[in-house]
C-alpha cells in the first residue's frame, strides 16, 4: 500500500505548517453559532394536512366548511378551477373536494389539469355534485381522476366518513415517508447516513461504466472532538457537530453526497472528477471549514482540526466497502502524521 500525502497548499487550500492544532487558539472572521439551525420540515406531520374545497357558490363553500370543521384539519377555499390550480402551486393538500358544475373551467377540466401535474397527481379528488348526475357523467369523473362522489345536499355523516378515509390514508403515507427518511438520515445533522451513502456509492460506481471520469470517497475525522464532549458535555458536542455539518454542506459541490458516517466522522462522495487534484481541492476546502473556530454562546470557542483520507476510483469494478475502507486507512495515516491536510490512498500497481 502506498500513500500520497498532502503537504503543500493546493489551489485555494491552506498550507499544512500553519494548520491549527486541536488545542491551539485559532483566529478568523468566520464564526458559526453553536445554536441548532432551523431543522427542515420532515416529510410527515399529520397536523399540516389541508383540504382544498372548490365551488363557485359561496353558500356551498360555507356549508362544506361548517360540516368539515369538526375534523380539525386546515380548510382552504377556492371559487374557480383557476383559483384552485393557483392554491395547489402554493400549498400541499391531503384531499380536494371539487364541484363539478362551475362556470369557465368546470370540475372535469380542473381535475384533468391537477392529474397532469407531477406535484399534484397523487392528491385524491372527491367530486361534489347534484344528486341527479347520470352514470355517464359519473364515469367521466372517474376517468379524469376522481376517487369518489358526494351528492348535494351533503349528509354530514357520509361527508365526514368519506373525507376521514382519505385523511387517514394521507397520514399513513406521510408516516411511511417519515420512517423511510429516518432510516436513511442522521437524526442530529439530517445528513445522509451510512446506509444511504452506501446506496449512492453503488449507483455512482455503476455510472462509471458509462462515463470515464473519477470518483472520490473522502473520509473526515474531527481531531479534538472527544475533548469537547469531555470538557463541555454532549449537548455542546452535538451543537458543534451540527455547526460543522452546516459548514461542510457549504463547501461541497451540489452534486456531492455529504454523509455523517458515525460519531465525529463524516464522508463525502464526489463524482465526475477530472483528476486527483480535483479531489484534493475538495479536501482542502473541507479542512479549512473544520479548522475555523466554532463560537459558543458563552463567548468561548471550540477549535477542531480535520484528518482527511481520500480514496479514488476510475472504474466500476471497485467495491463500495473497499473504497470506504481505503479512505479510512488514509485518514488514520493523516491523523498519525498530524501536520498534513489530507492523505490519498494509492493502491499497488499490480492491484
Describe what you observe in this structure.
With 351 residues, the protein is of the alpha/beta class. It has two domains: 2-36 and 190-346, Alpha-Beta Plaits (2-Layer Sandwich); 46-184, Rossmann fold (3-Layer(aba) Sandwich). The protein has ten helices and 13 strands. It has helices at 58-68, 81-90, 107-116, 135-143, 156-184, 194-207, 225-232, 234-251, 276-291, 320-337; strands at 2-6, 50-54, 74-78, 95-99, 125-130, 146-152, 214-223, 257-262, 265-273, 294-295, 301-302, 305-313, 342-346. The strands form three sheets. Strands 1-13-12-7-9-8 form a six-stranded mixed beta sheet, with helices on both faces. α8 runs antiparallel to α9 (276-291).
- Quick check: average pLDDT? 85
Number of extended strands:
13
CATH class of the largest domain: Alpha Beta
Instruction: Count helical runs.
Output: 10
Shape: elongated
Fraction in helix: 40-55%
**How big is the Rg?**
28 Å
The strands making up the biggest β-sheet line up spatially as 1-13-12-7-9-8
How would you sum up the major sheet? 6 strands, mixed
Low-confidence stretches: 7-46
What is the SS-derived class?
alpha/beta
CATH superfamily membership of the largest domain: Reverse transcriptase/Diguanylate cyclase domain
List the helices and strands and how they pair.
Blueprint lengths: L1 E5 L43 E5 L3 H11 L5 E5 L2 H10 L4 E5 L7 H10 L8 E6 L4 H9 L2 E7 L3 H29 L9 H14 L6 E10 L1 H8 L1 H18 L5 E6 L2 E9 L2 H16 L2 E2 L5 E2 L2 E9 L6 H18 L4 E5 L5
Parallel strand pairs: 2-3, 2-4, 4-5, 5-6, 12-13
Antiparallel strand pairs: 1-13, 7-9, 7-12, 8-9, 10-11
Amino acid at each position: 500500500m502506498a500513500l500520497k500525502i498532502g503537504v503543500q497548499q493546493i489551489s485555494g487550500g491552506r498550507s499544512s505548517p500553519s494548520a491549527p492544532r486541536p488545542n491551539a487558539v485559532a483566529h478568523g472572521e468566520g464564526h458559526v453559532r453553536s445554536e441548532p439551525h432551523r431543522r427542515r420540515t420532515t416529510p410527515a406531520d399529520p397536523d399540516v394536512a389541508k383540504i382544498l374545497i372548490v365551488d363557485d357558490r359561496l353558500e356551498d363553500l360555507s356549508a362544506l366548511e361548517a360540516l368539515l370543521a369538526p375534523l380539525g384539519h386546515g380548510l382552504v377555499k377556492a371559487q374557480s378551477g383557476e383559483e384552485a390550480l393557483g392554491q395547489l402551486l402554493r400549498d400541499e393538500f391531503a384531499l380536494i373536494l371539487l364541484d363539478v358544475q362551475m362556470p369557465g373551467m368546470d370540475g372535469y377540466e380542473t381535475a384533468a389539469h391537477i392529474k397532469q401535474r407531477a406535484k399534484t397527481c397523487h392528491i385524491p379528488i372527491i367530486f361534489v355534485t347534484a344528486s341527479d348526475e347520470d352514470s355517464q357523467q359519473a364515469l367521466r369523473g372517474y376517468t379524469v381522476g376522481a376517487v369518489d362522489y358526494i351528492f348535494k345536499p351533503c349528509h354530514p355523516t357520509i361527508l365526514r366518513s368519506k373525507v376521514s378515509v382519505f385523511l387517514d390514508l394521507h397520514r399513513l403515507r406521510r408516516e411511511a415517508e417519515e420512517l423511510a427518511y429516518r432510516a436513511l438520515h442522521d437524526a442530529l445533522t439530517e445528513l445522509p447516513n451510512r446506509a444511504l451513502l452506501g446506496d449512492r456509492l453503488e449507483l455512482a460506481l455503476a455510472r462509471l461504466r458509462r462515463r470515464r471520469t473519477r470518483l472520490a470517497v473522502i473520509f473526515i475525522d474531527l481531531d479534538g472532538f472527544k475533548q469537547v464532549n469531555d470538557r463541555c458535555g454532549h449537548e455542546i458536542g452535538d451543537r458543534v457537530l451540527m455547526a460543522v455539518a452546516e459548514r461542510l454542506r457549504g463547501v461541497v459541490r451540489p452534486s456531492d453526497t455529504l454523509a455523517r458516517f458515525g460519531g465525529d466522522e463524516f464522508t463525502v462522495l464526489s463524482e465526475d472528477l477530472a483528476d486527483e487534484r480535483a479531489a484534493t481541492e475538495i479536501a482542502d476546502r473541507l479542512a479549512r471549514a473544520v479548522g475555523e473556530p466554532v463560537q459558543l454562546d458563552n463567548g468561548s470557542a471550540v477549535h477542531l482540526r480535520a484528518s482527511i483520507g481520500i480514496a479514488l476510483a476510475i472504474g466500476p469494478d471497485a467495491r463500495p466497502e473497499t473504497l470506504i475502507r481505503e479512505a479510512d486507512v488514509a485518514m488514520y495515516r493523516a491523523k498519525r502524521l498530524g501536520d498534513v491536510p489530507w492523505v490519498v490512498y494509492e493502491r499497488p500497481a499490480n492491484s
